[in-house]
Every structure is written in C-alpha cells, then in structure tokens.
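Please decode residue identities from the backbone states below.
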C-alpha cells in the first residue's frame, strides 16, 4: 500500500515544474525558464529510474530504442528544449549576443512564448507518465528466433523491405505504405550493419555498409535535416552497447558537427534542387562545398536563423494560441473525426477528402500562413492536442501518446521474440513517425496501418518458420 502511494506521488512530481511555471505566469521570463528547465528535470527523474525503475531485463545501453529513451529524447527533446533560441531572439539576442533590449511592448510576445513553453512542459510530463505507467517488463516470451540467424535475417529484411516500399509507391491509393517500409528498410540496414561489424563477417559487413551508404545518400538529397541526423544517431545507438567509448568520442562530435553545417547545407541544397536549377546530385555537391567553406559570419547568420525559426515550432504554436479559443473555438472531436476519415485507404474511397487539405484548413483559419503561400505548415501533435481541448486536451492526448507507444512496443516484443526484432527492428522501423509528433490525421493513419503491417509481418514470419513458438 505504501509502495503504491509512493509511486503515485512520484508520478505527480512529473507535473510539479508545470504547476510552478503556472504559479509564476505573472513573470513571463521566470515562468518560461521554470517550464523549460522543468523538461530537463523530467528527463532526469524519468531516465534515472526515480519515478519508476528502468527495466532490468537488459542493460540500459541495450534498451535505448524503447519509448522511454528514444521517443522521449527525440520527440520530447525536440518539442520542449529547442524553443530557447526563439526565446533568446525575442529577448534581443542574436548569435548569443544581446543586440537590443526588450521593451514593455514585447511583454505580450514573451507572455505567449511562456504560455506555449508551459504547454510543452505539461505535454512532456503527460507523455512520460503514459509511458511509465504501462512500462511492464519483462514480457512473457511466446515466440523466439535462433540468435545465429539474426544477422542474416536483418540484412535480408533490409534488402526485401526496400523494393516492397517502392512497389507500394506504384500502387494507386497505397502509397502511404511506402514510408513505413522505407523506414523499416533503413532501420533493418542500420541494425544489420551494427550486428555485422562485431561478428567480423566481411561479406555481411560490405553489403550492410552499401545499404547504409545508399540510405544515407537518400537522406542527404532529401532536403531535410532530420533523416541525416537520424541516420547517424541510430547507427551510434545500435553500436553503443558493443563500442561504448568509441561511439562516445566519435558520434557525439559528429552529431554536433551536423547541427553546425546542416542549416547552410540544406539552405543551399533547397535553393538549387527545389528550384530546378540543378539535379539532386549536383545540388548536394554545391551545398556540401558551401557548408564546409562558408565564411564565418555567413555561417553564424544562417545557423542563428535556423536555430530561431526552424529548429523549434514554437513560432507557429504561438499563432494558434493567439487565435484559439479567442476567435476560433476549440475543435473538440472534429480532428479525431478527420483522423478516422484519413484511416480509409484511398483505393477503397477514391473521392476521400485530401488529408493535407483538411489539415491546412485549420492553419489558414488561424492565420499562420496565407492561403496563397506555397509553404506547408502543418501543426505538430501537441498543437492539435491544444486545439482539441486546451490544457486538458494536451494532458489527455500526450498521455495517450506515451501509453500507446509503450503498449505497441510491448506487443512488438511479444510477437517477435524480444527486444532485437520486436523493438529495435519492427517498432523502430514501422513506428518511426512516433519519434516526431505530427498532425493527428497523419499520426493516427500511420500508427494504425503500421500496426496492421506489424501483425501481417508476424504471420508471414510464423508461417515461414522464421519465428517459432516457445
């Protein structure tokens, strides 16, 4: 009884930073920093096992792809911690130097930013509570696969899932499966490379290295920074249990270097490739050369603009908060209804409303961007949670986000015989969208159909005796 009471109190502590920030909302700067630092506090007490002990069925290094680690660090880290540069910019800082002083006229802006940061803090606490409450390990194994077959199976999965993804791209109405299987191929190839290196199988290593290089090049010419960073990050996480020191001294500086050069690289790449001035390969070469040889001042200006306006999504969040509920009512269950519409494959409902149009309608209504703009600015998951029901909406939908991620991860480990195939391959491959919380319609659609794909892959592996019952 005492243990249960203690557990409940520790879950409540997750929400203390949000409550303190709310009490201090009269001072926007203080309230912002309490909420912002509160997320680091939540990281500390959840990742150290203080709120609930970290599962002991594997070492910490060998379970980094579970939701409490990978999803919390990427999803919550990106959502809650990156707004600091936007806030500094609003206080008059540029390239970390104060060039102007905020005036009383800026108080409304600072108040809005602090309000959004409190929502981020509430969302972070709710997400972690959802994960931890359902984090029940170890699972009872019902299926298994021989360890000696794992390395070859992972490589095979990478080779097969990529053409399968391309096949879905050619079938009208089923193109959404392209992204799931493309992501599965990337995770399988990276995991296979991490498996092949310590086994010292030259053939496997070379094939897996070729697969990884191909995926990295695809990320490089995508025009987006996230796939490049994730390519390096995931390989580092997979190699970490075997090469802890080597990964720490090589991958950490590499990630920091990417954050330094990628803003300039992407800016140059997009201006050449997306405007049709050069093909992807040439644009990539030009961008790489520019990023590595940029003048120091140019690099600083590009990076600061990236850190302030593109690293964080708080600028867009403040605009939604300005319009809802003041001029536009909360959406209630409307976004859920639209998400259910999005679940129906277009091949079964050719005249189904276009999902992107449904999402962009609320963006236009809030005045985030002009209808004639060619820019796409879809709201993040937490923004949709806010639009659906304010503070309670954020608590409910972010708690559900964490709980569902954890329950799916447990199901994957149960179906695929444990962590390697269940979490590291299937969960991370098919449900990678949960690393980055996007609009309800896209999130619900992808998670639902990824779940169906997971069940189908399990049946195939069972019928081909790759998986065997214990």
């Amino acid at each position: 009884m005492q243990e249960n009471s203690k557990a409940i109190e520790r879950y409540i502590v997750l929400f203390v930073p949000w409550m303190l920030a709310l009490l201090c909302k009269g001072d926007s700067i203080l309230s912002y920093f309490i909420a912002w630092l509160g997320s680091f506090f939540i990281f500390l007490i959840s990742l150290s096992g203080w709120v609930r002990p970290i599962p002991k069925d594997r070492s910490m290094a060998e379970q980094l792809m579970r939701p409490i680690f990978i999803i919390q660090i990427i999803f919550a880290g990106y959502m809650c911690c990156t707004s600091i540069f936007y806030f500094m910019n609003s206080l008059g800082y540029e390239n970390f130097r104060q060039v102007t002083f905020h005036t009383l006229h800026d108080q409304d802006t600072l108040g809005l930013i602090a309000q959004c940061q409190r929502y981020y803090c509430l969302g972070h606490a709710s997400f972690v509570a959802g994960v931890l409450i359902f984090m029940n390990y170890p699972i009872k194994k019902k299926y298994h696969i021989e360890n000696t077959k794992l390395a070859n199976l992972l490589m095979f999965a990478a080779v097969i899932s990529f053409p399968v993804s391309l096949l879905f791209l050619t079938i009208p109405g089923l193109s959404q499966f392209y992204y799931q299987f493309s992501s599965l191929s990337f995770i399988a190839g990276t995991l296979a490379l991490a498996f092949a290196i310590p086994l010292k199988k030259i053939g496997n290593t070379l094939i897996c290295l070729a697969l990884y290089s191909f995926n990295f090049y695809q990320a490089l010419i995508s025009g987006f920074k996230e796939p490049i960073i994730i390519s390096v990050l995931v390989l580092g996480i997979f190699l970490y249990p075997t090469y802890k020191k080597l990964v720490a001294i090589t991958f950490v500086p590499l990630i920091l270097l990417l954050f330094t050069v990628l803003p300039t690289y992407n800016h140059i790449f997009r201006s050449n490739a997306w405007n049709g001035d050069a093909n992807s390969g040439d644009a990539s070469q030009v961008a790489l050369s520019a990023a590595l040889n940029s003048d120091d001042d140019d690099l600083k200006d590009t990076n600061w603009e990236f850190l302030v306006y593109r690293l964080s999504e708080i600028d867009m969040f403040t605009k939604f908060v300005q319009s809802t509920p003041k001029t536009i009512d909360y959406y209630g269950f409307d976004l859920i209804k639209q998400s259910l519409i999005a679940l129906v494959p277009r091949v079964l409902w050719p005249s189904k409303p276009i999902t992107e149009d449904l999402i962009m309608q609320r963006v236009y209504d809030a005045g985030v961007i002009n209808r004639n703009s060619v820019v796409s600015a879809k709201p993040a998951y937490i923004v949709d949670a806010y639009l659906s029901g304010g503070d309670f909406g954020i608590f409910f939908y972010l708690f559900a986000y964490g709980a569902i991620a954890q329950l799916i991860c447990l199901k994957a480990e149960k179906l695929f015989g444990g962590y390697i195939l269940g979490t590291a391959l299937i969960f991370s491959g098919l449900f990678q969208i949960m690393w980055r919380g996007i609009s309800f319609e896209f999130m619900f659609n992808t998670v639902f159909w990824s779940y169906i794909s997971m069940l189908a892959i399990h049946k195939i592996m069972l019928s081909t005796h790759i998986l065997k019952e214990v």
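Observation: The two ends are 36 Å apart (CA to CA).
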